[in-house]
Amino acid sequence: MPSQSFKAVIPAAGLGTRFLPATKAMPKEMLPVVDKPAIQYVVEEATGAGIDDVLIIIGRNKNNLSNHFDSVPELEEKLKEKGDEDKLARVQKSSELADIHFVRQGEPKGLGHAVLRSRAHVGDSPFAVLLGDDLIDERDVLLTTMMQEHERTGAAVIALMEVDPEHIHMYGVATVEETENDDVVRVKGLVEKPKREDAPSNLAIIGRYVLPPSVFEILERTGPGKGGEIQLTDALQEMAADPDGPGVYGVVFRGRRYDTGDRVDYIKAIVQLAADRDDLGPDLRPWFKEFAASL
Description:
Helix content: 25-40%
Number of domains: 1
Family: Belongs to the UDPGP type 2 family.
GO molecular function: UTP:glucose-1-phosphate uridylyltransferase activity
Pfam family, one: NTP_transferase
Structural class: alpha/beta
Shape: globular
CATH superfamily: Spore Coat Polysaccharide Biosynthesis Protein SpsA, Chain A
Strand content: 15-25%
Oligomer: single chain
Number of strands: 13
Radius of gyration: 20 Å
Organism: Microbacterium aquimaris
Order of helices and strands: EEEHEHHHEHHEEHEEEEHHEEHH
Domain Nucleotidyl transferase: 7-273
């Protein structure tokens, strides 16, 4: 585990328009992935890396998020009366995961703006930013490695993953140079959602960042970029280009990642995670094979 104390910031103020009408009155982060809302996986990832202070950036119609992480005495009492200890433990887990705080973003002006809203809570400490669209399998280590790399270098650290060039336009993309570690690269430049022919590599930023508090000063003066929003990528590009600063490093992730921001990939994530579970997999895997054969 890292020796420093980190806080976690989870931006969750997006409108979730890809999942309408399901997200008309419910945050996309509360959509279930098997039997837990997506955001609980993200909070569990943070706590699994030793972070116990989590700030969630929320917007309109996001009260369900805070409700989920509150205790529900009436429900817990009913489960106790029924002697259903397994469900009781699962209900209580969400309210005991971490010290969870909330702040409103107001008007959604981009990821950079959402991160900037965390400044008062984060203060002068390094912190991790975890996006709820990307779920990292709990069996694969990523965040801990990123935090350790920040401790080693003092730099901003981003998670990178090789993606199909056909999909590169959906991501921030890095120009990199190798280091002595095959899984760590130095980031020389970043571009937000380039066309395939303009992409400098196939290494895309996925939704994990470990940032020094100096990023706030840069975000304060970062104007709207791609899509008219304040882009975190633009601030990271400035950090990468600063010859006097610690720069930006990337940890290349080669493990299991589940993209829940797209409807098809969301369904795939549910299928993959359910199939791997001891309580569901034995019944589901034979059915999947039968179903696939029937197509």
